[in-house]
Each structure stands twice: as structure tokens, then as C-alpha cells.
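Thread: "does anyone have the structure for this chain?"

Original post by V.I.:
We have the sequence but no experimental structure in hand. Need at least a predicted one for the grant figures.
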Amino acid sequence: MPKASIPCYTCGPPNDGNTESAFYQCNLLLQQQTSMSDDESSTGSVPQENVEVEETTDLSNSDVCTKYQEASKIVNLALTGLISQCVPGAKILDLCNFGTTIINTQASKLYQKKVKGVTVERGVAFPVCVSVNDVICNHSPLGSEEVEPLKAGDIVKIDLGCHIDGYISVAAHTLIVPESPDSPPTSVSDDMGNVAVAAYNAMLVAAASIKAGATNTQVTDIVTKVAQSYGVNSIFSVRMHQMKRFVIDGVKEVALRHPTADDLEAGEQKLDECTFEQAEVYAVDVAMSTGDGKPRPGVLRTTVFKRNVEANYKLKMKNSRSLLAQVDKKFPTLPFTLAHFEDERGAKMGVTECVAHGLLTPYPVLHEAKDAKVAHFKCTVLLLPSGTAKVTGLDMPEYFKSDKKPEEEVQTMLDDIAAAAAKKAKKKAAKKKKKKASS
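Reply from O.Q.:
Generated one for you, C-alpha cells below.
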């Protein structure tokens, strides 16, 4: 799968007469030369038009592409580290803190030089969430909450994001907690295998289908075919989103399934068709279930929010005003968790009024039916001139297997994706071998 009185991060800062810029120096020289040739008694001056140098913030800028790639490396590193920590007895809060530390530590090593006197922003773009069993996504507990630790056989979904200078990469992964770190799960049910393989394959074919000239409807069609082949349902409220600088959920969206007449009657909206364009970036987000795919509320507290920067309201409560002031300073555009605030009690009290008046948008913890199996995979894709590049997301665990087969069109796509990945891995291994031999 909003803006207010704060700086616009999408277009980049204006020039505003920077005295070091080439434009300013040239313009100054021209004024001096004109002044020398004009009558010295002239009191008038020729007004100079302010020229804004618009910053290129899409993939046509090589520096932007590099920042996406660097953020992607950190996302994959954090995912890998978190997977290794998902063992019996592990606490969800500790896992979230561990992932956050990896992201912030690795990001802080990059782009340390200030740009025009301003530090380059970098770090967490989406809070580390660890959702277990029937919990679908967005679970990031607070320190004061008691949550049952992981146990062998638990289905764990990890979701996180990192940004460098506002350029965002995200990913999600599903795993089963093993009996011990050295022994992978051996008894995975057929239902779990089907839903995990379906979600992962749907993510792969969706990523391959998001290319310049294609439409969101075509991607929804192919994801629907995958779900039907494996006998599972897509989670209706989960959507893929275009991402821009400091914007994690852009205007262009992709639904995982088309709404039925009952869905529309219940209040669901059908997405307008949109066409993908070169130099765009997308979060390919797929969650599937053996249940009905309709999320429902549960007992877990919502802790993840995002500032709705288009909304303004004069808050009454002191805790609310304090929370919003901190959000505007630390998290003006990207999602955050209340666990990031030192005064947790004050944040919990203040968030209610902020949400009630539309200042903060909640990311509720979504649940499926208790006996349903849920899988969640997500990757980031860049629409480059050479084609669509998948830059985040790890391989599906080998213990997820299914006897079911997708239809021919989907299978052909999966075969092409596997062949391209094998070719890339072979080329990378050969390059590594050559480098080792020359050293």
C-alpha cells in the first residue's frame, strides 16, 4: 500500500538568492556592467526576476537513484538481522528496537556532509513492525505493554522501511519461528505453504508487471489470478503505493483484488485506473490469507501514525499540543510509532485528540480470523530505463512449499523471473571471483 504548513519536501528547497550559486554570480556581474554604462544619476534599477532552480527528485537523477539503492541495502540488512533473532523466547519489543537500531546506525554512516548547511535526513521511513499469527501488520508495541514472546511455530511478519534524504525503500517478510536457531521448521502445514507461496509469487509477478505503460488494473488482475490458483484470498485493505521523496503513500495505488458489489455496498472504494511511468518508485505490498481476507479490529493498541499535513486544529490538551509539536519536528511526513517518544504516557494521552481532529492518520493493527494463516511480503521497485529493478525483499524461506500450480501465464512469468535472477547471480559470482583473483 496530506500536507500543511511545513516545508514542501517533494520539490526540494528553492534557490532564494544563494550568493554562492552560479546564477547569482552571473546576474550580479551583469547588473554591475549595466550600471557602469547607464547614467550614474539614475535612481531606478532594473528588477531582477527570482529564478527557482527546481531539484530533480526522481530516478532521472543518478544521485537520487543511489540514495534509493543505499536505503535498500539497509532495509535488506535489517530484515536479515531480524530473521536471525526470531527464536523462541524473543520479545517483540526487543525485535522492533533491534531493527530500528540497525536502520538508524547504518543510515547515520552515509551522507554525513551537510548540504547548504543542513544535515541530510536519514533513518527509519516506516517503523519496524512484528506481527504474529493472525495479526496481519502494523504491530509495534510500547514498552509498557506486555506482549507474549515468540514461541516455536509462530508465523511472524516483519515490516520496515528506511530513507536516505527522503528517498524511501521498504520491505516485508514472513517466516516461521524454528525450534532452535540452527534447525529450520520441519512441520509446515499445507495451508501455510499455500498462502506463503501465493503471497510471495504474487509479489514477484506484480513487481514484474509494474512497468512504464502498464496500468494498476493489470497488476490487480495478475495478483487475483495468483490468489485463485492457490485457493487463498488477498487482504483487501492492503494496497501497493507509489513512493516519492518523503511520501510513502503516493497518489497512484494498486489494489490486491477488485471490489465486489458487496464490498462496494459496505463502503469499499474502487481505485481509479492509473498508468505507470518511467522513473517512478513503488512499494509492492502483498498480504494474503487462508481466511476471507477481510481484516477486523483486535485487542492490540494502534501505535503507528502519520502526520496529516493538510489538517490544522487548535488543540485543547497540553499533552496533545506537546505530541504534535514533537511530530512536526521529528516526523513531519513519514510514519512513526509512539514508542519513539520518551514520555510514552503523555503520547498515549495526546494522540487521541490529534486523531479525533484529523491531525494524525492511524495505521491500525489489522487482524484476521484466529484460525487463519497469513503471509505478508513486500519489496521496492524502481522503474529504470533498463526496466523494472526490484531492490528490496529477501528470498522466500525454502520450507514454504505448495503442491498447487499457478496458471500458465503466471508460471511463464515466474520462470522468466527465476531465469533472470539466476543469470544475475552467476554474473555477480563471476565478477566476485575475478576480483578475488586479481587481488
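V.I.: this helps a lot. Residues 155 and 176 are 5 Å apart (CA to CA).
O.Q.: and Confidence is low (pLDDT under 50) at residues 1-47.
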